[in-house]
Design goal:
1% helix; 17-stranded mixed sheet; 1 helix; single chain; mainly beta; globular
């Protein structure tokens, strides 16, 4: 803490270790009289190490003005060992080279941000800028992949006070959703004799642009909210299923879709009497899928509506009666 109210610096260093060993055994039963059953087994040894250093600095810059700076340095050093075995019996299992491999996952994730908040008359502005850089080194038997990304993401949040009871809000933000190690692991995983799952080391993070407009009304005990939202999602990570023949399918991940969605969310809470409380909420949701990269020529659209209502009666200090209704 420094001189001045709210002027402070915080640092946090953590080191997390996880050792996860497990065995999965499968038994395929044959229904045809001439066929025989089979056994399979996969032995997993997951060894993950993560070092994380975070820092946040907050400094008041005047009445209603605040500057925030921060960073997050994350280092992942993970090893995933898969040993796949097959055989006609549990005692006769032998290693399957196609299911046996070691996957090394090394990530250096660097993130920094800055935000600045200040009033502008009846309006309050919060502007931010975030920088993310990821360096991925992925190694397995027979291949080595580098998957690096760099992204600069702005954000802006505005709040306008109409009066003591009402407020308008508007915001824009951009964020990334990064695939996990298993989504990137190219080592085949045997789900069952007819289904395999393989990761894609070339996956990129999903990018989301989010826009929101809101209205708030508060007068105790009543509160009303209305939020209009719209989101664009690029490089959406999607399952892709390939027919390998003979009834065998392989599922992997790919950045092959774009989606857009939006809607209106309404919330109303309050009291009819000192002991009778109501809660109402509803959402009208629209979504669009652009799967042209998957071979679809037309965009797919869908609209849904859902709502919830509840009425609560506090009959006595110890007894509460509640009635709920849902629309899906």
């Amino acid at each position: 803490k420094f001189d001045g109210d709210g002027h402070e610096l915080s640092l946090r260093l953590s080191y997390d270790v996880t050792d996860d060993n497990r065995t999965r055994t499968g038994h395929t039963l044959a229904t045809a009289p001439s066929a025989s059953g089979a056994y399979d087994q996969q032995r997993f040894g997951y060894d993950t190490r993560q070092t994380d250093l975070k820092g946040d600095y907050v400094r008041p810059m005047g009445p209603g003005q605040t500057l925030k700076l921060g960073f997050d340095l994350q280092f992942d050093d993970n090893v995933y060992e898969n040993v796949g075995l097959r055989g006609g019996s549990l005692d006769g299992l032998t290693a399957d080279p196609g299911l046996t491999n070691t996957f090394f996952y090394e990530q250096q994730l660097s993130q920094t941000y800055v935000t600045y908040e200040r009033p502008l008359g009846a309006m309050t502005m919060l502007a931010g800028l975030r920088y993310e850089q990821s360096k991925l080194d992925l190694t397995s038997s027979g291949r080595k992949d580098d998957n690096d990304t760099t992204k600069l993401m702005p954000s802006l949040h505005l709040s306008y006070k109409l009066n003591d009871r009402q407020k308008l809000t508007a915001s824009y933000s951009e964020r990334l959703q990064r695939p996990g190690p298993f989504d990137l692991n190219p080592v085949p995983f045997l789900v069952d004799p007819l289904n395999y799952r393989i990761g894609n080391p070339n996956l990129k993070p999903q990018q989301t642009h989010s826009f929101e407009l809101g209205w708030q009304y508060r007068k105790a005990p009543m509160m009303a909210l209305a939020t209009l939202f719209y989101r664009e999602n690029d490089k959406v990570v999607t399952d892709v299923v390939t027919d390998r023949g003979g009834g065998v399918f392989v599922t992997t991940k790919a950045n092959v879709a774009q989606t857009r969605n939006g809607g209106l969310e309404l919330v109303l809470n309050g009291k009819l009497t000192p002991k009778l409380t109501y809660n109402l909420s509803s959402t009208l949701f629209w979504a669009q899928l652009d799967g042209s990269n998957l071979g679809f020529t037309d965009k797919r659209n869908g609209t849904t509506a859902q709502g919830r209502a509840s009425l609560s009666w506090q009959a006595t200090p110890k007894d509460l009666l509640q009635v709920n209704g849902f629309l899906v």
